[in-house]
Amino acid sequence: MLSIINNFIAGEYVEGSRGNLFDKFSPIDGSLVCKVHESSRDDIDAAVAAARRGQAEWAAMAPAQRAAVLHRVADGIDRRAEDFVAAECRDTGKPHSLASHLDIPRGAANFRIFADLVGNVPTESFMTSTPGRDGALNYAVRVPKGVVGVISPWNLPFLLMTWKVGPALACGNAVIVKPSEETPTTTTMLGEVMNEAGVPKGVFNVVHGFGPDSAGEFLTTHPGVDAITFTGETRTGAAIMKACADGIRDVSFELGGKNPAIVFADCDIDKAIDGTVRSVFSNCGQVCLATERVYVERPIFEEFVARLAERAKALRIGIPSDDATAMGPLISKEHQAKVLGYYELAVQEGANVVCGGGIPQIGEAYREGSWVEPTIWTGVDHSHRIMREEVFGPCCAIMPFDSEEEVIALANDTEYGLACSIWTENLSRGHRVAARIDCGLTWVNCWFLRDLRTPFGGSKMSGIGREGGVHSLEFYTELRNVCVQL
Ligand code: NAD
Known about the structure:
Layout: E1 4-5, E2 7-9, E3 12-14, E4 21-25, E5 32-37, H1 41-60, H2 63-79, H3 81-92, H4 96-118, E6 125-128, E7 136-144, E8 147-151, H5 157-170, E9 174-178, H6 185-197, E10 204-206, H7 215-220, E11 227-231, H8 234-245, E12 250-254, E13 259-263, H9 269-281, E14 291-297, H10 301-314, H11 333-348, E15 352-355, E16 375-378, E17 395-401, H12 404-412, E18 416-417, E19 419-423, H13 427-435, E20 441-444, E21 459-460, E22 463-464, H14 469-476, E23 477-485
Parallel strand pairs: 1-5, 8-9, 8-11, 9-10, 11-12, 13-14, 13-19, 14-17, 16-17, 19-20
Antiparallel strand pairs: 2-3, 4-5, 6-7, 7-23, 12-22, 15-16, 18-21
Helix pairs in contact: 2-4, 2-6, 3-4, 4-5, 9-10
The structure holds nicotinamide-adenine-dinucleotide.
């Protein structure tokens, strides 16, 4: 396991030239996990220069050859899956079962799917005829954007980073990744896999650091970077957009959410409870798609609240390696303080705490970890901040509703627009309501059921653009038109 984390530039692990190493602490027990080199502007210059060289070589390879290399990257991740799972759990505290079933296999899948997709996307062509003149053939070709900056968050670090790196490389770009300062390890480990798979030096680079006056800012303002793809908080997205404005650099943003679940009285209540337990508490609630607002139709409100609370109280909170663990800690002490702040605020604002609201006792050895209890509130309305602001913790507030019109208005009464889940056995209603929710992704009778070919992204303050399937290719390539007179 790495205890000092270096940058990865031009196929080599290199120390940061700033001479500053920052600490990464364990969310499980507060111990020091590793020290990480913070990048200077010079390091970003070096990464950009390496990426420009690497990109020219990579783009000159036949797409089928690039696809074969990316399949080897996916195979390399699979071969080292246990190491990746261990490192991801060490950085995040998430259960092994989650990292081994979701985060790391999805990382490998992100390379395979886009490697296979790029060769199969047609481009348009037109036969142009102008009376009295020779005709022309117009066709479009896709070219890589060039050097893409990838800025990723800590909640699903490997999954969300590869979700961008996979398509960017498949399209012939080079990337410079700045992973979250909270989760530096798995992105750095991927460098070795890239080298083994035969990715040319400089095509995949990793720089470490923070946002302002650090690697994030240096990358987003660098004139040698052609586009920025970012996943993280809405407020950070706004700062990055400003940073990219002077260079007219293209951006793709996957941002925050305050996602509703709508539970109609005609739902299969067992399924709705199972789905809502997952959508609220998975990954300790630190999923952009997580449900934080639950609207339940009045005839089943009491039953739903009681049953959800029973399930929340039964969730086993523990360390990653324990097979029985359903929920780990939050990412950091800082995030714990933020989530506990919302727990206090909810009480001050008059919410009824159905369960949780505090810090669970995990054991003396884990006292310094960032643990919080799964928490449910009722007695809220949209004047409460916990119904409006993203908490990003294992909690939800539940409100009753009486009609379809009312619940559609409630679900849409938010500045965010990422995801929604609807629970009903009346499929006509499922389609009808889904069409009226202002968000990028609506699930009916499920949650986090993903097909990587579908468009993914948020409306309103939850993002700009769509990635996934051909939509990723739209962002990671430019279309050029060629006109040939016949
Ligand atoms: P964050 O915005 O704090 O940080 C994300 C990344 O941006 C980190 O690498 C950070 O170092 C970097 N950064 C911070 N300030 C920067 C700046 N000024 N310039 C350049 N880079 C900067 O987000 P987080 O706390 O890591 O992640 C949680 C947030 O991400 C939540 O809001 C969540 O909803 C959102 N998220 C969204 C999606 C999605 O697909 N929509 C997925 C996962 C997480």
